[in-house]
Specification:
Bound molecules: thymidine-5'-diphosphate, magnesium ion
Number of helices: 13
Number of domains: 3
CATH topology of the largest domain: Rossmann fold
CATH architecture of the largest domain: 3-Layer(aba) Sandwich
Strand content: 25-35%
Largest sheet: 9 strands, mixed
Shape: globular
Length: 463
């Protein structure tokens, strides 16, 4: 008879302790140790992933093969993946419940299946009938798309061996368990083992596998970082429930850039790609309102025009409050301090409310000037002239620093009909030297270079 042993595993970092502890000594998180029963045989369960190349080879002798990719025909997903799904790769897709992970992968798989490839969608959460109901709404009906409702890893591998699909989706990895371990599905031990086996299988059979992962309330993919280390690509599907748009972001990608984002809109018939996101986020913008400013931002390799809005009012009760949505709170506090000291704006005792239009989240330095422009504009009650786009990084001394991808930002602004760009002087000089202005002659764009906050307050706002 196999002897059962009790261990306690931290569900956030994987630390193992023989007795229960309130706080994990490794990652210092509270209340994350969970009791698990393991048998002696569990210790040997995690066989190493069967890699096909296990001999040392001189690096110059390794044959270069171009990685084999399959397009899912969902352009935004393919772009985030770096140009399609790499054969044999493991992709982890995380996101809040109900954000649309299952929908996205069902749509993606359907288009792969319609291209004549056999694909398998394994659901540990929903019955085939539930999946069918969703598929009907999405117009997903390819005969090459097979659905399997199953929780046992052994059974799933068996089905894969028989069906020999070209792509597999596991929805979700937290619901699958192996009988080799006695702990329940979703625990660290199970997650690690099930993922290792599936990823190993994918690698040896050159078949891509998508693992859907739940996220914890902190927004991390449930389970230890271990899971993120094991896969080749980690994607996050995010968005605000109150808005229809969804953003797919690569957090890690062994086969492409991590800066790319894909933008979708959730409609009645499923997710629609938004190929021109610029217009989308500034669509309902008020014109000539003090406090509303358009920033040409870059997400990945793509420019997106976003709107920064703010409201500055005198504080009624003692401490001024700062309510910030969509930009880092600390960054805005810093910019407010710079505006007080270097721009001479007396906003220290004002409540400031600031948000990015459309519920978008941005973290790029070029948005700094947008924040400054928006707060100053609302405080002074002077709108930024309509048809104006701003961008630039603001330093602690109030200086406005150059940012990258200036040409892309300006071209996108021109494309969206903006006629005036307020940009760092440094960027302006470089554009002039590169002959960019000659190339943009027909667009008739007015450029204003600013060196510091005072410069901006002098020339950027409409009086
Ligand atoms: P789902 O893919 O089930 O989310 P997840 O797998 O991330 O938990 O998406 C569910 C949400 O999407 C649900 O709240 C309803 C909405 N939805 C639509 O608005 N339109 C649709 O066509 C579909 C299929 C879902
Ligand atoms: Mg789901």
């Amino acid at each position: 008879m196999t002897k059962l042993k009790t261990i306690h595993t931290c569900q956030s970092c994987g630390y193992i302790s023989p007795k229960w502890l309130g706080r994990c000594p490794d990652c210092l998180s509270w209340n994350t140790l969970l009791e698990e029963k393991v048998s002696e045989k569990d210790r040997t369960a995690s066989k190493s992933i069967n890699m096909p190349y296990s001999k040392p080879q001189p690096i110059n002798k390794i044959e270069r093969i171009k990685e084999d990719r399959v397009l899912t025909a969902i352009g935004e997903l393919d772009r985030v993946l770096g140009g399609g799904v790499v054969m044999g790769s493991a992709v982890l897709v995380g996101g809040d419940p109900g954000i649309g992970k299952s929908t996205l992968l069902l749509q993606a798989l359907n288009s792969v299946a319609e291209g004549g490839r056999q694909v398998l969608y394994v659901s540990g959460e929903e019955s085939p009938i539930q999946i069918k109901l969703r598929a009907d709404r999405l117009g997903v009906a390819s005969e090459n798309l097979c659905v399997l409702a199953e929780n046992s890893l052994e059974r799933i591998i068996e089905v894969i061996e028989n069906l020999k699909p070209k792509t597999v989706v596991i929805d979700s990895i937290q619901t699958i368990s192996t009988s080799e371990l006695s702990s329940t599905a979703g625990t660290i031990a199970q997650l690690r083992e099930v993922s290792a086996q599936l990823i190993g299988y994918a690698k040896t059979h050159n078949m891509p596998v998508f693992l859907i992962g739940h996220v914890t309330k902190d927004g991390l993919i449930a389970g230890p970082k271990v899971l993120e280390h094991m896969v080749d690509t980690v994607l996050h599907f995010e968005g605000d429930r109150g808005y229809p748009y969804r953003i797919l972001r690569a957090i890690k990608n062994r086969f492409g850039s991590v800066n790319e984002i894909g933008v979708f809109e959730m409609r009645d018939g499923g997710l629609e790609e938004i190929n021109e996101p610029s217009g989308f986020f500034i669509a309902d913008r008020p014109s000539d309102a003090a406090g509303s400013v358009v920033v040409a931002s870059i997400e990945g390799s793509r420019p997106i025009l976003i709107e920064v809005e703010s409201l500055v009012t005198p504080t009624l009760f003692g401490m001024p409050s700062r309510t910030i949505v969509g930009v880092d709170h600390k960054k805005v506090s810093l910019l407010i301090a710079v505006m007080v000291r270097k721009g001479g704006l007396k906003i220290g005792a004002h409540d400031i409310f600031l948000k990015i239009g459309g519920g978008l989240r941005v973290s790029e330095p070029a948005v700094d000037l947008g924040v400054v422009a928006s707060v100053a504009s609302n405080f002074l009650n002077k709108p930024v002239k309509s048809g104006t786009v701003v961008f630039g990084e603001v330093g602690l001394a109030g200086e406005i620093r150059g940012v990258h991808h200036t040409e892309l930002r300006v071209k996108e602004s021109a494309k969206m009909g903006f006629k005036r760009c307020i940009i760092p002087k440094d960027n302006l000089e470089r554009l002039r030297k590169s002959g960019f202005f000659n190339r943009m002659k027909d667009e008739n764009i007015e450029f204003i270079g600013v060196n510091n906050i005072e410069d901006f307050l002098g020339s950027g706002l409409h009086s």
